[in-house]
Each structure stands twice: as structure tokens, then as C-alpha cells.
Amino acid sequence: MSEYNSYRDGDLRKDFKPIPLQKRMARFPFNKATKVKIISYNLNLKRTSAGSYTPPPPPPKTREDSINLTRYYDSIRKNVKFELREAVKHSNIEGIQESKTLTHSEISELTDVIYNTCNKYYISVVSTSGCFFPRNAILFYDKNDEIFAHFEVCFECSGIESSPKKMLEPIETCEYLYPDLEKFFKSKGLTTQFIGRK
């Protein structure tokens, strides 16, 4: 019993054995995917508080007022948040700003990060943030080149959601996953944080 209590959360496990590639690839959705793609979106949108709202300018009385009103509505159209679930449902992924189709070795690297990172550590509690403003995702394509599953990732808040739900065990989404996963995205040339207007 004393051995059980001799560790702290976050300590490396002495008995850690990585899940081998064959077993990682046998897990859904990797076992059904003919293509895996990582993407970035919403890179120019700032995360805002739930109640934030900028009212439109007053009705135009002068040419300047008309120009300001036009700018206001143009900015709203430009700042529409890309919703991955809606885009997948309607097969319209025009809001994706960056993407990379992964090679077999990159998929192996990705599955290692997803399934082996948290298993390296002693973890008793997995916390979640209230914020979730994803800018990155992992897309899984079937033999018809249609997306059948995805993970959406918010690196700013350390959150991950999947469709279908519960593709990862809660313990697999520990706080140590996000730095390694973000490093993976960046190593493949994808942006993971707000970049403002270009």
C-alpha cells in the first residue's frame, strides 16, 4: 500500500509501457480511416466573452454614416466563426485556413501522442476548462473521401471534443496531452493560436 501512495500526480510512471503502433491503429477512428488530415481555422477570430456584443451604428444620416454602417456589417460577415460540425454535416469546409494530409509515419506519430502521452504519468484527476474555442482539428476520411469522425482541439483552453462522442477516455485527455499535441501540429506547419488580421 505504501508503494501506491508514493507518487504524486504528474510523476512519471516507472511501469509505463507504450501502446504499440498496431494496437493504436486498431482503435476507432484510425482503424476505419483511409486518410487523416489536420487543420487550422478561426485563426483570425478573437475569443470573446459570452455576452460581448457591439451594437450597430445609428441609422445613416450622412455619407460617412453609410460608410460606417457598411463597414460594421462587412466586419460581421468576415468574423463569422467557422463551425466544424456544421461544415462536415453540409460537406462545406471552405473556412479551413490551413491543412495537411498526414503520411503513415505522421499518423504513427500522432497516435503515439494521443494514446501514450497521458499513460506516461500518474494521474488521479482530469480537469476541464469552461472555455472551448477550437482552432484546430483532426479529420478522419472514409473510402468515399468523406469525413466520418473528427477531434476538435482548443490549445488555448486545453480542451478536446470528438464526433462521435467519447472516442477518447477522460484519462487520455490529461493536461500533458495538449503541449505535445500542439507541438505535433506546429511541427507539421499548422498555426494553433490567434494570429489577428493579415
Top keywords for this entry?
globular, five-stranded antiparallel beta sheet, 15% strand, alpha+beta, 198 residues
Summarize the structure.
The chain has 198 residues and is of the alpha+beta class. Helix content is 26%, strand content 15%.
Explain what this protein looks like in three dimensions.
The chain is of the alpha+beta class and 198 residues long. 26% of the residues lie in helices and 15% in strands. The protein has five helices and five strands. A five-stranded antiparallel β-sheet has the order 2-1-3-4-5. β3 and β4 form a beta hairpin. α4 runs antiparallel to α5. It starts with 20 loop residues before the first helix and ends in an 11-residue tail after the last helix. About 3% of the residues have low confidence.
How are the secondary structure elements laid out?
Layout: H1 21-25, E1 35-40, H2 63-78, H3 84-89, E2 98-101, H4 104-116, E3 136-141, E4 147-154, E5 159-163, H5 177-187
Antiparallel strand pairs: 1-2, 1-3, 3-4, 4-5
